[in-house]
Amino acid sequence: MQQRNCNEDPCTSDQGVWVIGEWSTCSKSCRGGVRSRTVDCKQSITSNIYFIESECPSGKPSTQEQCNIESCPTLAPSNPGGMCNVVLTNQNARIVVGNTNGEYCNTTIVAPVDQRIVLTFVKVDVDCANGGDFIVKDGRSGYRVCSVQTNSDWPRSNTNVMEISGKTLTNAHGYEISFRFETVNYQNDGCDSVYTSEIGSLSSPNYPSNYPANTDCFNYIVAPPGKRISISFTAFDIEYHPGCGYDNVRINDFEAYYTVYYCSYRNPFTWVSTTNKVQVHFHSNPALEKSGFLATYTFV
Fold first, then answer.
1. pLDDT, tens only, 25-54
2. pTM (two decimals)
3. Parallel, antiparallel, or unpaired: how do β-strands 141-144 and 133-138 relate?
4. In Å, what is the CA distance from 99 to each residue of 56, 74, 133, 168, 299?
């Protein structure tokens, strides 16, 4: 009978070992968050063979633990920078809001028409579960943020107007936000404008002479939060069409989700917004130009 060696590989242990992953980022920056990690029973530290947990030593390491249990820094008890119910048009700034005593603090940011707004949440800590709130409004879209945010960037705005709306009830909550403007590739007919003064006027191009063909003008009027905008058309003569499908003036009430169209000859009339932000869009097609419109506006 011949004999030969077999099964010469080193023997493996019948008992597995705990393989422990890295801790995740803490769920909160203060006031007690939770972090987690993976803990698996494997044949060895480098092995891809998993054992059932009973085949590893007793006393499985923890997969979760508390973290950042220290108290949060106390923000200012009120509105130190006068950032509530205002319109900001500067290129970059910081918005710092502490305890608003349960009242909404609304801050509107307005960039030039060829620029967009980039927010950075330096610190946002609003307790939505207990009466707090924090909303970012971008054009007609609104986004609620209830998780703690630290040094995180918000996507670039879709329009040149944003509004931050927040409320807090304790000195331990609040938010600090920085913002800047970024220039975008923006095609226009050279007649777009932004109005933030309490009183002003606007008109179609060349008024009182005939407006040019194939022209689009976007005029943004932005009042402080809580105000509305009254637009009085003192002269109005634009090409007639039953559905105003040729030349027209379109007024978009930013947060009311509707657009009104005006055309033809009209006697003087007044339109009042339901929010503090409107877009007045003048459009002309290739034919039949008229004198257009003249209007004044005021905040009410």
1. 887 766 678 899 999 999 998 888 889 899
2. 0.68
3. antiparallel
4. 51, 10, 12, 5, 28
